[in-house]
Amino acid sequence: MSSPEVESFLQQIKLPAADSHKGQNGKLLIIGGSELFHAASKWSLDVASRLVDMVFYSSVPSNNELIQEAKSEFWNGIVVPRDEVEHYLEEADCVLIGPGMERSAETEEIVNSLLEKYSDKKWVVDAGALQMVDPSLLNKNHIITPHSREMELLDKKLAGQELAATVLLKGATDVIRSDGQEIEIEGGSTGMTKGGTGDVLAGLVAGLYCNHDALTACVVGSYVNKKAGEALHEKVGPYFNASDLAEVVPEVLWQEINKN
Asked: CA torsion, points 134, 138, 142, 144, in degrees to nearest 10?
């Protein structure tokens, strides 16, 4: 999809009203991280905390270093113990689950039990959670963000059954499938092969999904993430990382909104 075609989606982005109060412009719960993968969910958090009013963040109890860093990085955030996550889940407008989670029986239990219990909630299912999810639990309220190998795994699990969720298939060209529509988003740069850029995208999409429909969140998220990669490439070529991308995304989003 070219820039002019994306404009209709960018025009739908809602900005905070002058008289709005804290919490009215999005509350996002992020469930992610593990003892093995420390940074992934932090990249998602870094982006999302710039988009919404409140971020509730829940990682594994032993991930103390990440939790302490999270507490110092954003003002309107709450670090949530895993045994209290359902209380904040009920309050959140959207839940992102999976960045930094391992492929394990524990992840499988957490993901599928929560998706089944809170099936009407807006969910973005990514990374480790996506690899362990029961695809029969996915519905029209859910966004999934697979790369090609994860999509192949889901297709095998589905065994010909239709997937109800909105799909943002990541690649050199992102492919978004939602309710019979298919939209391609081109762009990006070679620096976006770095680990963590998908976690930035997941945080961006989830932050947008708090206050927008799934298709708008995916199209704008994919487009802005790629444009941010292009902006960084103009400055430093391929020599940037996921943290750099997370810093540039809000600037690019604002620029793109103001073009319209």
From this structure: 50
Q: Compute the distance between CA of residue 38 and CA of residue 40 in angstroms, rounded to an integer.
A: 6
- The sign one gets for the Cα dihedral 150, 119, 182, 214 is negative
Dihedrals phi, psi of 31, to nearest 5 degrees: -115, 115
**Residue 30, C-beta contacts closer than 8 angstroms, at least 6 positions apart:** 41, 44, 45, 48, 55, 56, 57, 58, 95, 96, 97, 99, 203, 206
Residues 81, 62 contacting (CB under 8 angstroms): no
Strands 94-97 and 77-79, how do they pair? unpaired
* Predicted structure pTM score: 0.92
142-186 per-position pLDDT tens digit:
999 999 999 999 999 988 888 999 999 999 999 999 988 999 999
> Distance between CA atoms of 214 and 207, rounded to whole angstroms?
11
